[in-house]
């Protein structure tokens, strides 16, 4: 595939004294690399690759990518691209509003590695800061929507409505149709229709008021959008009557709503909605040309156990201190697989944190003031239009005015654009004007000028028939941190509780916690990238167009596919898009009956959940004793399902961290039976530059840019999950109603380019690494994993290995025999690692009772050794439990992690010393480690997760709870 020419830097080449970026990205320098190779008895990285990777899949020619740029050159290129975007004042609306990110939040959350390099809070003891921020988010959504339980974020508004649809389907027994408001956002209609079609659910869009349209449909749920796409606000009485009518039919009411409007208008929970959904973007999150933004969902009592996505709840630690952790995880796909409530894994944590902090900073009064100002400006503008003889379509609105200008709409929009404002061209006769928090008087003047009307100076607003009467955000957290000093300290206090990559290694298998370089991160804040509305005219988004087509081209090159789409905004969504492409392909050939998806037992939970969402039936393929796909069982399953076979979904290298020899045969067997091969590309960090899934037999893959391509995890999102496909599947990659020419295939994300705003990160990574650098990164990732496996092998059995006893980019340490002999569990080891200053590896995936370690190429030898030393020291501690020196119920492992309060308590009754508890094994982290200064102290002790599930609390506990 031809790769588009990359823009070239404008500055002179850097002086050669500056080290190339690749040596900043890769941790081990040459001497360390040689030591690691020597420890493995190898002479070169190439020797390692030859030993570990099957020849059959190796690439023969190097990647065709432009030469690596320096960090300054890359910033130049990206600044140039940002400048090619004309991010005018965004008054287009349609679910994306102009907002002002408070600087204290931008710099100390969005741009702070203590927040953005954190992992998903699966280890709650070291994640209390972001869990508190997410609990604030849940409390904020719950208060504003008037519904008791809110999740910790979804991917965007359109997918949130789709998730609400499946929730409603599970929760109701009657009806066959989801009825959408006539004023639903067009992208929501697109996403919901795509998702419903695959599941065999009927969707209808009302052709008039919902209450009247109810008569014509047998509904299981109704979506009411208020304010609507046109700006129209539905009165509370009308909403209440609608809810009653839907409930009388046994259906559910889903309110698609606007958090800022809800500070002034009646909450969905008050008028009878069962579910509320929407986007929290306008709470201080930049537009980012469409994302990432945090979608939200909240539900009435009785529906909480069916919520999609993650949910933070309050529990307590061993000492009874209230502590936060993810609640009801048994709903999630890691456990429930094809029966999960949703396939969502990576969500939008960083953006949910930003939105929640916006509410913390402004407080209920501040939010109301912002809402009132927005509403007053919209009302004033509507009055000016009316005075000037322009028809204003709706009498009741919050921030968006729909103006009727027969035949003149395009001219008005063009004139406004001249004046520095993007308006919405609704159709030839209508213009939408959405007033955001950031709209200045000069912008309103430009709008008036475009319409040819004058300022009558009236700025008042009332919301007759929709007013809110209930309080919100009464918790102290929303009423305390209103000065910048207080806010700064609150943010620092929370991030100090968390262990992120700025403190140490996060050796998580399957998650690739590598360097997120500062040069990669900086451009996301450039106004040209951050300030652009996703539906801005293409001529004002030329920088993004080049960035996106270049990046898609590079990703196609590294994966060996014909076409890549960056629209999916997480790996799970890439899976869905890829499976829908397979479905579309089969159906285009008249193969409607091909609906079986084979999935190996070791697969990531999202795989099975996504297959179900794509309307497929999951059939599990067994693993052999060595962990690879059982080809005999595969043959048998293909035999049984030959005519119905749609696809197989495999991860390569396998979730066991091994390059399976049988991959080419597996692809051939499935193809021969008429099926397609989906290779889950989340483990591309073991392949990049060495092998291309599109060339070794796969038809489609998703990649995770938030794993292999340096987008930080953000504490559980954002992500980008591009889908790459072979030529024959190219006509079936996601389209979008706002992308002319692509409407044939439905979208999987609200925005045409998904989370466009974070694509500069991956762009910068590839630009700075070049073909050789990317290949070197892969080789060093393999080296690091094999080095760790080698050092730990004598202490913990390495569960699976491939050819020549080598692993790929990660390895599984088998604790099960150790647990059997000593009673010490993976949990104990994971929590004890915190005392040693580490984040735990992945626990019990893909094999229960094991730990999966992925060190990545970015950790230097000293950090790798520190981790291995810690694991070896822990093994010696286990030995002391095993041989009876320490009782099974009283030892530093079962009591880990140790808080400061515990080790400094007046009383100490344990058979091990305080020093052993807090400063184990004489391991040194830094010169001031021994004084406790350089030590990471967990803010709480071991958390009782099931207590929280039995006593579900998902909003901020009152301050007295901490007394
Ligand atoms: C991370 C991962 C996924 C899911 O990606 P998300 O972005 O979290 O949705 C799927 N498969 C594998 C193997 C993964 O490691």
TrEMBL record:
Residues 1-12 have a biased composition (Pro residues). CDD domains: GDC-P. Its cofactor is pyridoxal 5'-phosphate. SUPFAM superfamilies: PLP-dependent transferases. The keyword Oxidoreductase applies. Residues 777-898 form the Glycine dehydrogenase C-terminal domain. The modification N6-(pyridoxal phosphate)lysine is found at residue 707. Keywords: Oxidoreductase, Pyridoxal phosphate. Its EC number is 1.4.4.2. One of its GO terms (molecular function) is glycine dehydrogenase (decarboxylating) activity. Residues 1-22 are annotated as: Disordered. The keyword Hydrolase does not apply. InterPro entries: GcvP, GDC-P_C, GDC-P_N, GDC_P, PyrdxlP-dep_Trfase, PyrdxlP-dep_Trfase_major, PyrdxlP-dep_Trfase_small. Residues 24-449, 483-735 form the Glycine cleavage system P-protein N-terminal domain. It holds the Pfam family GcvP2_C. It catalyses: N(6)-[(R)-lipoyl]-L-lysyl-[glycine-cleavage complex H protein] + glycine + H(+) = N(6)-[(R)-S(8)-aminomethyldihydrolipoyl]-L-lysyl-[glycine-cleavage complex H protein] + CO2. Belongs to the GcvP family. The glycine cleavage system is composed of four proteins: P, T, L and H. The glycine cleavage system catalyzes the degradation of glycine. The P protein binds the alpha-amino group of glycine through its pyridoxal phosphate cofactor; CO(2) is released and the remaining methylamine moiety is then transferred to the lipoamide cofactor of the H protein. This is Glycine dehydrogenase (decarboxylating). It comes from Microlunatus capsulatus. The lineage of its organism: Bacteria, Bacillati, Actinomycetota, Actinomycetes, Propionibacteriales.
């Amino acid at each position: 595939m031809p790769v588009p020419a990359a823009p070239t830097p404008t500055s002179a080449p850097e002086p050669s004294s500056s080290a190339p970026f690749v040596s900043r990205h890769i941790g081990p320098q040459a001497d360390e690399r040689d030591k690691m190779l020597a420890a493995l008895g190898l002479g070169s990285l190439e020797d390692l690759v030859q030993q570990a990777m099957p020849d059959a899949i190796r690439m023969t020619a190097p990647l065709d990518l432009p030469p690596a740029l320096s960090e300054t050159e890359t910033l130049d290129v990206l600044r140039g691209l940002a400048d090619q975007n004309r991010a005018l004042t965004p008054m287009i609306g349609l679910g994306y509003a102009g907002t002002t990110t408070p600087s204290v939040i931008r710099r100390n959350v969005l741009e702070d590695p203590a927040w953005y390099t954190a992992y998903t809070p699966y280890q709650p003891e070291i994640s209390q800061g972001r869990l508190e921020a997410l609990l604030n988010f849940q409390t904020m959504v719950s208060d504003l929507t008037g519904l008791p339980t809110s999740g910790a974020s979804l991917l965007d508004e359109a997918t949130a409505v789709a998730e609400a649809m499946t929730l409603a389907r599970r929760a109701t027994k009657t009806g066959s149709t989801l009825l959408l408001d006539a004023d639903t956002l067009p992208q929501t209609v697109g996403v919901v229709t795509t998702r419903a079609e695959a599941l065999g659910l009927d969707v209808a869009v009302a052709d008039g008021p919902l209450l009247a349209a109810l008569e014509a449909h047998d509904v299981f749920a109704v979506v009411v959008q208020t304010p609507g796409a046109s700006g129209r606000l539905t009165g509370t009485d009308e909403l209440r009557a609608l809810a009653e009518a839907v409930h009388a039919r046994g259906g559910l009411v889903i309110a698609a709503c606007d958090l800022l409007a809800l500070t002034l208008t009646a909450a969905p929970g008050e008028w009878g909605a069962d579910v509320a959904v929407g986007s929290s973007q306008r709470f201080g999150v930049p537009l980012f040309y469409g994302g990432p933004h945090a979608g939200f969902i909240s539900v009435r009592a009785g529906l909480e156990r069916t919520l999609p996505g993650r949910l933070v709840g309050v529990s307590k630690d061993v000492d009874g201190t209230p502590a936060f952790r993810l609640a009801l995880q048994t709903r999630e796909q890691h456990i429930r697989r094809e029966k999960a409530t949703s396939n969502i894994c990576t969500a939008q944590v960083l953006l949910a944190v930003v939105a929640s902090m916006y509410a913390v900073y402004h407080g209920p009064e501040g939010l109301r003031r912002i809402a009132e100002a927005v509403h007053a400006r919209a009302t004033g503008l509507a009055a000016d239009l009316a005075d000037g003889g322009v028809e204003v379509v709706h009498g009741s609105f919050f921030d968006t005015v729909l103006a009727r200008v027969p035949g003149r709409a395009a001219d008005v929009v063009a004139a406004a654009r001249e004046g520095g404002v993007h308006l919405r061209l609704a159709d030839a006769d209508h213009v939408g004007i959405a007033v955001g928090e950031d709209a200045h008087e000069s912008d309103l003047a430009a709008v008036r000028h475009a319409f040819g009307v004058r300022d009558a100076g009236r700025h008042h607003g009332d919301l007759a028939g929709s007013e809110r009467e209930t309080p919100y955000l009464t918790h102290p957290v929303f009423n305390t941190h209103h000065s910048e000093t207080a806010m700064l300290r609150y943010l620092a206090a929370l991030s100090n509780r968390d262990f992120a990559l700025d403190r140490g290694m996060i050796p998580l298998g399957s998650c690739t916690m590598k360097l997120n370089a500062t040069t990669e991160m900086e451009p996301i804040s450039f106004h040209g990238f951050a300030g652009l509305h996703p539906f801005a005219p293409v001529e004002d988004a030329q920088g993004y167009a080049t960035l996106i087509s270049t990046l898609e081209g590079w990703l196609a090159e590294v994966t060996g596919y014909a076409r890549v789409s960056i629209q999916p905004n997480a790996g799970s969504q890439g899976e869905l898009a890829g499976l829908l492409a397979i479905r579309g392909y089969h159906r285009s050939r008249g193969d409607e009956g091909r609906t079986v998806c084979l999935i190996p037992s070791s697969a990531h939970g999202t795989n099975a959940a996504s297959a179900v969402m794509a309307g497929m039936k999951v059939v599990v393929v067994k693993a052999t004793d060595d962990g690879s796909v059982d080809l005999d069982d595969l043959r048998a399953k293909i035999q049984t399902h030959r005519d119905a076979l749609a696809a197989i979904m495999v991860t390569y290298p396998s979730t066991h961290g091994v390059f399976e020899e049988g991959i080419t045969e597996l692809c051939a067997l499935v193809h021969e039976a008429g099926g397609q091969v989906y290779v889950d590309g989340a483990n591309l960090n073991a392949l990049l530059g060495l092998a291309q899934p599109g060339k070794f037999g796969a038809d489609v893959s998703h990649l995770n840019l938030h794993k292999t391509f340096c987008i930080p995890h953000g504490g559980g999102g954002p992500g980008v999950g591009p889908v790459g496909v072979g030529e024959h599947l190219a006509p079936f990659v996601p389209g979008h109603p706002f992308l002319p020419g692509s409407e044939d295939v439905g979208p999987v994300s609200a925005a045409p380019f998904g989370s466009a705003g974070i694509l500069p990160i991956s762009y910068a990574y590839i630009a700075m690494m070049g073909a050789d650098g990317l290949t070197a990164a892969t080789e060093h990732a393999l080296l690091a994993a094999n080095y760790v496996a080698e050092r730990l092998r004598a202490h913990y059995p390495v569960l699976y290995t491939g050819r020549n006893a080598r692993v790929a980019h990660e390895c599984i340490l088998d604790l099960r025999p150790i647990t059997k002999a000593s009673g010490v569990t993976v949990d104990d080891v994971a929590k004890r690692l915190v005392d040693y200053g580490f984040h735990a590896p992945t626990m019990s995936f893909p094999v229960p009772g094991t730990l999966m370690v992925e060190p990545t190429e970015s950790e230097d030898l000293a950090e790798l050794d520190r981790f291995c030393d810690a694991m070896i020291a822990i093994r010696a501690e286990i030995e002391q439990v095993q041989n009876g020196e320490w009782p099974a119920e009283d030892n530093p492992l079962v009591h880990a992690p140790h808080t400061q309060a515990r080790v400094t308590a007046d009383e100490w009754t344990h058979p091990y010393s305080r020093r052993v508890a807090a400063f184990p094994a004489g391991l040194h982290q830094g010169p001031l480690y021994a004084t406790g200064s350089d030590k990471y102290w967990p803010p709480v002790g071991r958390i009782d997760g099931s207590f929280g599930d039995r006593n579900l609390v998902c909003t901020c506990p009152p301050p007295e709870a901490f007394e």
